[in-house]
Amino acid sequence: MSSNKMKFNTKTIHGGQIPEKGYGAVMPPIYQTSTYSQSSPGKHLGYEYSRTHNPTRHALESSLASIENGVYGLAFGSGLAAIDAVLKLLSPGDEVISTNDLYGGSYRLFTKIFENFGIKFHFTGMNDPVSVEKLINVNTKMIWVETPTNPMMNVIDISSLSKIAKSRKILLSVDNTFATPFLQQPLNLGADIVMHSATKYLAGHSDVVLGALVVNNKDLADKLYFIQNASGAICGPMDSFLTLRGIKTLHVRMERHCQNAKKIAVFLNNHNGIEKVFWPGFETHPNHVIAKKQMSNFGAMISFTTKGNDFNKAIQIIEKLKIFTLAESLGGVESLAGHPASMTHASIPKKDREASGVVDSLIRLSVGIEDSEDLISDLKQAIDI
Q1: Which residues are catalytic?
Q2: DSSP labels for 108-144?
Q3: Residues 366/336, Cβ–Cβ less than 8 Å
Q4: Of 42, 156, 281, 287, whose CB count within 10 A is highest?
Q5: Which segments of 232-339 does DSSP mark as H helices, in order?
Q6: CATH code for the part of the protein at 3-247
Q7: What does the alpha-carbon distance between residue 382 and residue 49 come to, in Å, rounded to a whole number?
Q8: pLDDT for residue 354
Q9: Which residues, in sequence order, are bridge partners of residue 43?
Q10: pLDDT one-digit tens code per residue, 188-239
Q11: Any idea where the domains of the chain sit in the sequence?
Q12: Which CATH architecture has domain 251-383?
């Protein structure tokens, strides 16, 4: 059966894969090699040098394309390496519109690296696509979207932005890390490029750093493959193998992640020690209707603030957690807690951070797949101090 006829749960295991040619291995082998023999100069079996192509990485890239309903997949050494490749499509004088509550690492790459090469970035709230359209000018070449955003969980209407982007011949790139293709498939909604920090949910076990891009357009894919090879920010075969293995359980993990997150979001929302909970599943959440329309569930990322926006109380909570681990990153099987203002978003100026909602009392949770009762008990003992 071809990949495009498979259901998602089957694609995670078989999508884009071919039978192993050597010994019939069920899993693609780890081709831990830098180079490949040639019978004569230029005559080889499809592989010359592993920066350009590697069979294990190729298996992963085919899987990535399949689960995103795309045609071309590319794997990189990190999510930021993948974003770096996308921005290298641009030229000095080009402009990019992005969300104002962007992941701190993306913001740093945009403002501290690419602004130095003459690319201009505009950051704005994207809850209303009309506000985005007002910023477009003749130099605008790309709209960069996160949805849900990190860490405020704002939901952005991909379809509406796609219509705007296509009418102006602007590339629409979507960071789909929080949602994963299990919950949301931006290419189906009109995006041109989908990016993942595959370090997170795709690999899923906090043991890999890897980035991914998926596109449908061949010309765009060829440009990105050239950048991938020329810049060399590829992932190795072992990380490719581990991510491919992680994808095989993505669907079952995401089901449990989402189940647990819903219970925890409700618990936090009902707790008198919590000021506000940010989770797209609440009907009161901004753009909940859009989330319900473009996502199959609401994800496992939750942010919340303490009563009275008490910074000291927030620090006490995260230091007292026992099952939730205080750590950077997200999307692993284990539950993590973080303090965005001092961790993931520390590179964003305080004034800009707070304007987007990332206040010093904000705590971000990545809800894992442990027993939900244990997770709620852990939060309760940490908050009730």
Answers
A1: 51, 103, 175, 200
A2: HIIIIIGGGGT-EEEEE--SSHHHHHTT--TTEEEEE
A3: yes
A4: 156
A5: 237-247, 250-269, 288-294, 311-320
A6: 3.40.640.10
A7: 52
A8: 79
A9: 40
A10: 999 999 999 999 999 999 999 999 999 999 999 999 999 999 999 999 999 9
A11: 3-247, 251-383
A12: Alpha-Beta Complex (3.90)
